[in-house]
Amino acid sequence: MPIEPAALDELDILVDLWVDLASEQRPHGTHVRRTENRTTMRERLARHVVDGSVLVDRTDGDIVGFVSFERTDSDVSVDAVRGLVSNLYVVPGYRGAGRGAALLAAAETALRERGADVVQLEVMADNARALSFYFDQGYAEHRYVLQKRVGVESHTKANDHD
């Protein structure tokens, strides 16, 4: 399973895979709209491809997985340079054979070479399979993101016992 940089002429395939990734996240509560973001993701992935921050896994010449990543620079003083894995996807029929781990390891290596001290990523809170995968790769919880819908009736206040 050779991991290598993606090429610009593979952009349509990468966007299709990103749409598949976004589709799989819908049951886990993502708010990302898949088809409405094709153009935006095409532009974003193109920038990543140009700077070498999209890696792909191929089988018989076909892309069966990809990872995109970037080094992020903070506008405040920090004690660690952060790398961010923005997307990691393996086509369902190719999962469970170490491809995701190989893609993630390659992204971590590239980020380390670009000066990152830590690598972060986001995962949907109820995506148990993804959480288990990332924990197995040595990732740990670092920050919680909480959300609340506003403008609709929801749960009663904690102090309301009526």
TrEMBL record:
InterPro entries in the record: Acyl_CoA_acyltransferase (IPR016181), Bact_Acetyltransf (IPR050832), GNAT_dom (IPR000182)
Record-linked PROSITE patterns: GNAT (PS51186)
Domain N-acetyltransferase: 1-158
GO molecular function: acyltransferase activity, transferring groups other than amino-acyl groups
Gene3D superfamilies referenced in this protein's UniProt entry, alphabetically: 3.40.630.30
Assigned keywords, A-Z: Acyltransferase, Transferase
PANTHER family: AMINOALKYLPHOSPHONATE N-ACETYLTRANSFERASE-RELATED, AMINOALKYLPHOSPHONATE N-ACETYLTRANSFERASE-RELATED-RELATED
Name assigned to this protein: Acetyltransferase (GNAT) family protein
Species: Haloarchaeobius iranensis
